[in-house]
TrEMBL record:
UniProt domain Helicase C-terminal: residue ranges: 314-461
EC class: hydrolase
Keywords: ATP-binding, Helicase, Hydrolase, Nucleotide-binding, RNA-binding
UniProt name for this protein: ATP-dependent RNA helicase
GO MF annotation list: ATP binding; hydrolase activity; RNA binding; RNA helicase activity
Organism, as annotated: Chloropicon roscoffensis
EC number(s) recorded for this UniProt protein: 3.6.4.13
Amino acid sequence: MSAGSLAGSGLCPELVEALEGRLGIKKLLPIQQKTFAALGGGRNRHFDLRICSPTGSGKTLAYALPVLQEAYRCQRAQLQCIAILPTRDLAMQVHSVFSSLVDASRTPSVSVGLCCGLASLEEERAQFQPSRSRGHRGQLSCSAPEVGVEEGGVSILVATPGRLKSHLERRHLRLSHLKFLVLDEMDRLLQQSYHDCIPFLLEEFEASRRLKERNESRGMEGTSGRTPGEEAEASNPFFLQPKYKCPAPRLVRLSVSATIGGDSNKTAKIQEEFVRTVSGFDASAGRLPTDKYELPENLAEFRVVCAKERKPYTLLDLLKRVEKQRAVCFTNSTEASHLVTALIRKTKSVDWTCEAYNSRRTPVERLEALRRFKRGEVDLLVASDALSRGIDMPAVKLVINYDAPSSTKNYVHRVGRTARVGEKGTAITILGGKDDVGAFKKLLRKLGPSHTFPSLLPQKP
Ligand SMILES: Nc1ncnc2c1ncn2[C@@H]1O[C@H](COP(=O)(O)OP(=O)(O)OP(=O)(O)O)[C@@H](O)[C@H]1O
């Protein structure tokens, strides 16, 4: 059996079938193997976990697989996992990863919901309503329902912070069975103004757990025997045995990012307990990459230097020089993204088709732009940093930084849209004058002594 093969991975048959059949995945990537092992296939919930690994290394499935395996094991229509993503586009992307696996596995007790503001609060709330007609093999909880809170409904909820908070404030969600809280792009979630959602969620979870314990001690909950899920587990060799029996559900926080920082003041907000790290970073395996980031292995980096005011011409010249391919061009603002798009479209001698992708466009327009890009109808997406984090575009070959990135993290996430999952990719940064060159040199120092400053783009690459 080869390393990482699905057959020897400990994954349940539903997931193996879904991965192979729906996603065409034949083996697990290193960060996926490590995370699955650390979490004992979703059963080991004795510590919180930070999942740190370079862009495009497969972190989404790294957390999705143990979460789903645990949901299949339990076979209960209860909310077991909330995954929080900083933007709507990312939430939709992660929702579609979970959904494609769940749809392919045809396990009616497990379902996935999405709350990111695409629909009204009431429409989103409908996902949390019990759906007894689904004929799930598990059972709805015997515990007394909390006032205003629905039982049943989705097992995995993917949400943006603001929207999740709105549902929590209205008590639309029952949290007492929650096992996993995923904070994807954790460092960005903590940066944004709405990060107060996370302490709020943790407080709600605690309150809900206390209520459940009170109810149990008053004899209101009558589950003494094994659940159907536990019965199935006892005879199922695919589920790993836990080292210790877990008492009441413990909330495991899974923090995920290619650039998790070591700022303990910020991470304190997440209230991690006995935190461990699984790392896909070679040099710092087992430790947090606090001030050191890593780029994808097969990334070729170049720079082009020009006078500030000549940047538009330099970009056009670049597009004429390099072979037309699927590419993303980053700007530092939505205005610049629109201006650059208009410029390329107007320039007859440049035959790249392009679209603007930024926060000024509606979510539907952005989704459509992404779809057209993925279908190959658009060669170049001109994006503000709305696209720099997490968006998965497997076939991107080239990233152009029209505006120099503002930080090391920003550079890592931008260029990480290419050279994903072992593919080759190129990043070209346009530097407008000495100041840009100096600032860029400074921010790249954080990539460590082994990183060499990108060379000048050859005349004929
Ligand atoms: N085991 C696997 N085998 C082959 N491809 C995989 C595997 N797991 C994931 N992928 C693919 O790898 C790509 C990148 O995965 P993903 O988006 O999870 O990366 P990431 O590490 O979260 O990146 P980022 O840090 O940029 O968000 C996706 O297209 C995904 O389908």
